[in-house]
Design a protein that fits this description.
The structure is a homotetramer.
Chain A: H1 11-25, H2 37-44, H3 48-60, E1 64-67, E2 71-74, H4 78-105, H5 109-117
Antiparallel strand pairs in A: 1-2
Helix pairs in contact in A: 1-3, 2-3
Chain B binds a DNA duplex (15 and 15 nucleotides) through helix 3.
Chain lengths: ~120, ~120, ~120, ~120
DNA sequence: GTGGTCTAGACCACT
DNA sequence: GTGGTCTAGACCACA
C-alpha cells in the first residue's frame, strides 16, 4: 500500500500515530513485538532514521520498550496510558477548538448529528 | 497585547487566519480597508514582509483586493466565499476526523454534550 | 462607465494607451484639445497627479503639446509618429515573442486563422 | 552565463517562467528533480528566498511537488496541465489582444506571414 | 502615504 | 543534504 503521507505533518509523526492507533484498536497488544525498523523502512520506502525517530518518541513516552538485541515491544500499561492522556488532550484542547470553529461557521453539533442520522454523512 | 503566535504554524498564516476570523465575525465588512502592512508590522513588531505575505495569500484567494497606492480592501463576496469553502472543508474533512478520533478514544458526542450541559466543560 | 483598470499595469499607462488608441483610430485629430486633467480625474475618479503623469509622458514623446493657459493639444505629426514607432516596436519585439510563445504551445498561425474563419473565435 | 533578468518583472517570476519553459520544451520530465534552492541561488547569485518563492508558486499550481527533506520534483500531469491552461489563456486573451493591436496599427497577419516567408523577419 | 521586491544572514524541522 | 521562515534594512513604483 502506498496511500501514505497525505498531510503536511512530519512522516515520523504520522508513523507514530499509526502505531498509537493500532494500540488503541487492540491490533497491537501489550508484550507484542513491533516490526523492526528495517522492515518498516523497507515496506514504506522510508529512511530508517525516520522510522527510528517514531520509535524513539514512543519509547520516550514509555509506550514501547527496547529489549536489547531483540527489538521493540509494546509495554504493559500502554493502552491505559494512551487512553488517559489522549482523552485529556482531546477534551481540553481539541474539542473546545472544534466547538469554537463550528460556532464561527454557524454550525451546531445537534444539527450535524441529526443530519448524520438522516443519512447526511457518508 | 502580546498574546500572539501560540502555535508552531508560520506567523503569516496565523495572521491570515486572524483576519479571516474577523471577516467571519463581521468585525471586518466588505469594502472596509484593512490596516496597512506597516501598521500591522509596527503593532506586532513584525517584519513588513511577513505581514505582506499574509495579505498576499488573502489577495490570491480574492478575499481582499489591492487598490494601488491606497491599500487593501475586503472584497464584496468575501464572507460568503469563506463560509462556503470553510464549511465544506469542515464537513468533508475535519468533522469526520474528529468523529473517528472520538471513536478510537471511546468517546461519544452525546455524552460530551450532556456533560457540557451539566457543567462538565469550562 | 467604470469597466476600467483591468490589468496590473499602472493606471497612468493604461490611460496613456487609451489616448494613443484614440489617436490611432482617428477619434482624436491633430490640433484637437484633450480633456483637461481635472475633467478626466473627475470622470474616472482618479488622482489628478495620475492623469498628469499620463499627459506628461505623451508630451515627452511630442504626441501632445501644452499651450499655456489653454490645455493640451494633439500635435500635427502625432499619428504618423505613432504608427512608425509602434509598428517597429511590434514587429521587432512583440510579434516574434508571440510566435515563440505559440511555438512552445504547439500552435500555428495558419491553424488559428483557419479556425477563426470557420467561426472558431467569438 | 549572465544574460539574465531582462525585463522589469520580479526575478522570482522570471525564474518560474524559465522552469515552465523547460517543462514545455521537455528539458524537464515528470519525476525529475529540480535543482535545489541553494544550487540555483548560488548559480545565479540570488537570495535563496527569491528562488524559494518561484518554487512555492510552482508547487501551489501543482506543477511541482515537494518531497520533504529531498527536494522538489516535477509532477506527472504537469506538462499537460500547462499546455491546457496556457493555451486557453493564449487563445482567450493574448491572441485577440494581438489581433486588435495589429488592427489598430493597420497590419495584417497574412502580410506578416508573407513577408516572413520572403525573409522579412529574422 | 500604499504595497512589492530583494539582499544578507540566521535558525529551524525534516530526511 | 533538503525546503521554510523570519529579521533588518534598503530601494522602487504607484496614487
Amino acid at each position: 500500500m502506498n496511500t501514505n503521507w497525505h498531510d503536511n505533518s512530519p512522516i515520523y509523526r504520522q508513523l507514530k500515530q499509526r502505531i498509537v492507533s493500532m494500540m488503541l484498536e487492540g491490533l497491537l497488544k501489550p508484550g507484542d513485538a513491533l516490526p523492526s525498523v528495517r522492515q518498516i523502512a523497507a515496506e514504506f520506502k522510508l529512511n530508517p532514521i525516520t522510522v527510528s525517530r517514531a520509535y524513539q518518541e514512543l519509547a520516550d513516552e514509555t509506550l514501547v520498550e527496547k529489549r536489547r538485541g531483540l527489538g521493540m515491544y509494546m509495554t504493559d500499561g500502554a493502552r491505559e496510558k494512551l487512553l488517559t492522556s489522549e482523552r485529556e488532550q482531546f477534551l481540553k484542547n481539541e474539542w473546545p477548538a472544534v466547538l469554537e470553529r463550528m460556532r464561527s461557521l454557524g454550525l451546531s453539533v445537534k444539527e450535524l448529528l441529526a443530519s448524520a442520522n438522516a443519512g447526511g454523512v457518508a
